[in-house]
Amino acid sequence: MAYACSPGSGFRRFDAFAAQAEQTAGEFRGLPADCGPAQALAAFKRAAPYMQIPAGVVQLIDVLFAWTTPLDWRGGANPIVWPRNEKLARKLGLGVRQLQNLLDRAIRLRLISHLDSPNGHRGGQRNADGTIKWAYGIVLAPIGTRIEDFRQTAARGMAEDAAIDALKKRLGAVRRRISSLAQTAIDHMLVGTAADEELALVLSATRQMKNVRDIDLLTGCVEQMEQRGRALEAEIAAALVEIQAEQMQSETNIITCSDADECTHSTTTTEPQTANAVTSSGFPEGSRGEGFAQTRTVASSVEEDLEKHGVDPAFIESVSPELCHSLRHSQHGWGDVIHLAERLADQAGIHKTAWHEARRVMGERGAAASVIATVHKYHAGDVRQPGAYLRGMNGKAQKGTLHLGRTFHGLKDNRQSHLMRAMHDGPDPRAMGDLARRAMALVLSGRTS
């Protein structure tokens, strides 16, 4: 009675997958004339990644092919191999149970079939010419039957790979382009371009599309990013043309003034001596002392903002003593600050046109304060191109959006924070600029020998 309840216990299970594998094996009529077993195996291996065939199954088929000969794949023959499970497991470096799972998976994928002997054992014998006389075991005929399917699948997969690679290269190119445009916007302080948002979007798209193989989805993403990149490039190019036009206009004004016969140049005294005025091809020498005569009769909005926030020469010196240690300590005059700013601009590589434009837009005091703030940030590593940064400040000043007073108070707060951290980390928070300033004060007061 127990046998009647489980008649197939211990035998190979026959299901829909096994039936399909046997049907595929029965359709084998030999390999094409231009194809041998090596070519059939190669076609299967090329198609395997695109058919989601596990690597373990691919290795199993590769090992099984080693027991076949070209005669087994001719028309009318049946490619059967009969290694025992223990021997096959050793070849693959697996356990017997792991091998059985791979064989079952190969049947589900219609890659092999089984031809069992009456006693359930594998075995076979070859004739003297190498043809199979009789055999029971693992049938590889399904691979021969599906040779064209493997070829077409491999061709489609490789074509998709090429298309996907091309699309991802385009996405990488637009990512690099938008990154470069975003850096240009930062260097030239171009506001309103939303370059940072475009950069974040293209970086997110690159991450999301990393493992995507949907060509339509990938194409739509790449085309959209390219379109946004072109729009950003056109916007930044227009802004740069506008900046260049302003610089050329400024240079034209300066050259016209320098070439005019009746042009009066600024001097360092309260009474201009036009007959003895001297001009220089570099930065003009600034004035020193309290007797500096402003070229503007009315303070600029930037100078009014500095005065509103209490930013005077003494305040500027306290914010950046490393840069301002050469200022006189008996009295602090804007003439000294302007002279220092001219020298710092020259040392930092700021073009003279940017300095002249700053003087025209912000006034002498505003320009000097802007240069010192720019060089201070340049030395701190916050600014990469001081000339471009100063031109950006000129643009903000023209629009009335430059708040230089708040900038200096922010620099002062940052300096105090650094000093507090240094005091916490060590006993001596004094900067080199502070030491130089104190030494200069001692020299000027005659306290040193």
UniProtKB/TrEMBL annotation:
Domain named Plasmid replication protein C C-terminal: residues: 319-412
Source organism: Sphingomonas vulcanisoli
Extent of Polar residues compositional bias: 265-282
Protein name: Replication initiation protein RepC
Region Disordered: start-end pairs: 265-293
Record-annotated Plasmid replication protein C N-terminal domain positions: 13-185
InterPro entries: RepABC_RepC, RepC_C, RepC_N
Superkingdom in the source lineage: Bacteria
